[in-house]
Amino acid sequence: MAIEVEGKVLETDEEGYLVNLSDWMPGVAEIMAKDDDLELTDEHWEIINFLREYYEEYQIAPAVRVLTKAVGKKLGKEKGNSKYLYALFPYGPGKQACRFAGLPKPTGCI
Amino acid sequence: MAKANFVTPELHEFVEVPEVSEGTMAHLSPFVAYPEHNTDLNFPGELVEDWHGKTLSKLDDLRKRYRSLQVYLDSCVKCGACTDKCHYFLGTKDPKNMPVGRQDLLRKVYRRYFTLAGRFFPKLVGAKDLTRETLDEWYSYYHQCSQCRRCSVFCPYGIDTAEISMAAREILDSIGYGQKYCNEIIAKVGKIGNNLGLPGPALADTLEGLEEDVEDDTGVAVKYPLDVKGADILLVTPSADFFAEPHVDGLIGYGKVFHEAGVSWTLSSYASEAANFGMFIGSYENMRRVSLRIRKAALDLGVKRIVFGECGHAWRVAYAFLNTLAGPFDFLDPAYPVPQHIMEFTWDQIQKGKLKFDKTANDHMKLTFHDSCNVARATRMGDKPGGQIEIPRNVIKAVCNNFADMHHETIGERTFCCGGGGGLLTDDLMEIRVKGALPRMTALKNVMEEEGVTHLAAICAICKSQFTKVLPYYGMEMDQVVSVHQLVSNAIILTGQETDENDRDDEPDEVEI
Known about the structure:
The complex is a heterodimer. Chain A has five helices and two strands. By secondary structure, chain A is mainly alpha-helical. Chain A has a two-stranded antiparallel sheet with strand order 1-2. Chain B is mostly helical. Chain B has two domains: 144 residues, Fumarate Reductase Iron-sulfur Protein, Chain B, domain 2; 321 residues, no CATH class. Chain B contains 23 helices and seven strands. In chain B, strand 6, helix 21 and strand 7 form a beta-alpha-beta unit. In chain B, helix 2 packs across helix 3 and helix 13 crosses helix 22. The radius of gyration of chain B is 23 Å and the shape is globular. At the A-B interface, helix 3, helix 4 and helix 5 of A face helix 10, helix 11, helix 12 and helix 21 of B.
């Protein structure tokens, strides 16, 4: 599978995750969101950017609690919970937001 | 990523045994492993050319290696006792999801090539040739079995479909036809130490965050130690406990219990996974490789005890096989069970009066308990038969005022699978996961209506994740599932903890049902 972003054809896996992390550009998130009938707002981008920063440091997506805590600190305590994240990313922050951010899919008993 | 296209079954008062409908699930197969997922586990990367011969020789090898498999293939008398016992059949109507139907997929090939009658009169004994299509059918339907073993409880011969499904998966792996979900994950354990692929520094960062949170919450510096040499206890827990909700709330609870018990403990970044997917694919070699990491971590850290966190099949591997896979554990303290379940540890502390609780902290919930298949049907806890059923309930009742069990036909050793066990907890199998959850969802809905239950407590990472995903399909809320040690964590009063009862009482209920 593949997606086309800004004239470039980027390879994705069966579930729509980028195969090469280095292929990512902001347009990737835009195109993927469009396919999911989502419009990306600044709130979405806050999460996507945090995921990318965290991944760069730790080579893994942040745990849900790490993510909600960071969101709570940055955007206010009332937003520091998974309900807020699910409202933004209905398929789940771990899976949908990670895909938009170009991160590999978290695996395991989750 | 479009949502899978299927209809969620409706919930009724009872799960009626459906009329059989051929092939309703024939379309469903999980993603096939990439070559590197297979080769990482010492399987051929892709389907081998001589798959016919290799399949038969592997089947021959397995039936000789595992006497049980031979007995199971031979002894079915088609009595029908198992037919309505599988949650996947009840949810899909597909006769190949009846335990006997599933077994027969392998049995018909076994009969054709390994029994006298099948060799000469195949049609008379339901024997069938092995074809390329057989492999696809195996791949599909042996990945629609969560190896929960409920059917074996009702089989008069004790035929264990889980073992047949494990054997089928091992045969498929041996010819290069592996499942992506399981094989990718097992490879990650070998490379990074856990199913998630959570590297040491990320683990350390996550645990540090938990220490901050607990101290903010309670004023007590509870530690979540990593790689501490000379600690008494090595805690081995599913990596989902570091990552997901409500799993992490359980992990917080284990730490609080250890803290109050005054024992020294540690996690290991090398063996940061309790789950052992080697069992799901029936691979002794892979199961052993994963288990040996725990042994090595215990030796390297010099611990005296090993305690397992809330993980269903991990406890089966630990309780039933760990000693033969990775033993002897003569370097551990023989005064304690080797290994011990966190539930046993906590219950022991409760009985000794070492833990103080404010049960009202859980008053905003009424709990029920989901027995995880592997714990309920394949293990024990404590020193009495049935301890694995009783002890988790005892712990819940010690920390909660409100508890009610689901219907007795759906709990204990007759528990219905969550629908996501045995290597099925992957999005590409969402249809079978949702449909297979029907019996459990029905029992839950009933106990909610009849007893006012609001939350479902579980002691398995897979169950917790599966429920989080499937509850909304049935019109319930994802956060109705909780960890048992989350309940312990809510209620425990740590020595020196700043308690503010008024604050707590004012908190609104988190979930509206």
